[in-house]
Specification:
By secondary structure, the protein is of the alpha/beta class. It has 2 domains: about 160 residues, GTP1/OBG domain (Spo0b-associated Gtp-binding Protein, Chain: A, Distorted Sandwich), CATH 2.70.210; about 170 residues, P-loop containing nucleotide triphosphate hydrolases (Rossmann fold). Helices cover about 15% and strands about 25% of the residues. It is built from 6 helices and 14 strands. A 6-stranded mixed beta sheet has the order 10-11-9-12-13-14, sandwiched between helices. Strands 3-1-8-5-6 form a 5-stranded mixed beta sheet. It has a 3-stranded mixed beta sheet with strand order 4-2-7, with no helix packed on it. α4 links the parallel β12 and β13. The longest helix is centred in the last third of the chain and has 15 residues. The protein is rod-shaped. It binds guanosine-5'-triphosphate (GTP) and magnesium ion.
Length: about 325
Amino acid sequence: MFYDETKVYLKAGKGGDGCMSFLRQKYIPKGGPNGGNGGRGGDVILLADENVSDLRAFHFKKHWNAKNGEPGKGSDQNGKGGTNCVLKAPLGTEVRDILSNEIVCELLEHDQDFLILEGGKGGRGNATFKSSVNQTPRQFTEGKPGMEGDYIFTLKTIADVGLVGFPNAGKSTLLNVLSNAAPKVASYPFTTLVPTVGVIDYPEDFYSITMADVPGLIEGAAENRGLGHRFLRHVERCKILLFLLDMAATDGRDPIVDFEHLQKELIDYDPRLADKPFLVVGNKKDEENATENILRFRNTLDHFEPLFISAVLEDGLNDLRSVLLKKLK
Ligand SMILES: Nc1nc2c(ncn2[C@@H]2O[C@H](COP(=O)(O)OP(=O)(O)OP(=O)(O)O)[C@@H](O)[C@H]2O)c(=O)[nH]1
Ligand SMILES: [Mg+2]
């Protein structure tokens, strides 16, 4: 299983109460106030960690608390601060406050941290109330409660290029031959069930591009058919989209219609995706019946400057690599 969305309840620590105490010692009458302050409650902090791959930790444990501050004590002892609760989350995590429905933070870089909830302040001990007119203060204050809230954590893959295509178009095959990643390839639809990111190296340019393989889309995905729009969030952050079409129409569909459907699914999911730069690539040009489809595609949709490749035979990949580089660098 791959966990990319989960609801969590977070609570920062309460501040420790201030203490009311007086120095009592033999031969020292009126020793004076000596109640210490309470410690601060711990904060809840989110920390981006590239070694965490999904949100499973939060799926299995939904309540996370920072520790409370300790109360102050006599003899002017201040309470210890509560330990922070540091939550390690994968890169690409987005945190939404359920109450306000606002995005409070996005983790985009390794080691990036974000203070999501602050612990309560510790209370004041009575020693701090001492003044020339109040030599025996009996006041102290209680610690303040820590902040709390319900949040939705959503993981949205970070990659330069997002592969978008129907099942069996050859997305995983393409990522296999272009990058260091090795997603599973098979001739049945929905082979890919979780997003995989691979790195495409350009050693001569000292550059690299990341590409995300996402489970196949089908018509109606935005209404949650097939594996649904759940996975469309993994192309939301990509800088460019690569529409991969099966020119051989192996599953009996028409690549031109496929392209229209894919575009529609993206827009139904989020109209802003229409503004993303994209690239159209027709795959499986090695197959016999691809020839006619390529011709038709060229006749009707040539303005999209489609590229035609065979991922299996690694044909046309150099052109594809350089177009990707040009678009991204
Ligand atoms: N003839 C030919 N077959 C290909 C080509 N690329 C991929 N295939 C085949 O198409 C089938 C599907 O390939 P995948 O890479 O698993 O397709 P996918 O788009 O990742 O599919 P899902 O993960 O199910 O969405 C496999 O049997 C591949 O061997 C190609 O260029 N030519
Ligand atoms: Mg696949």
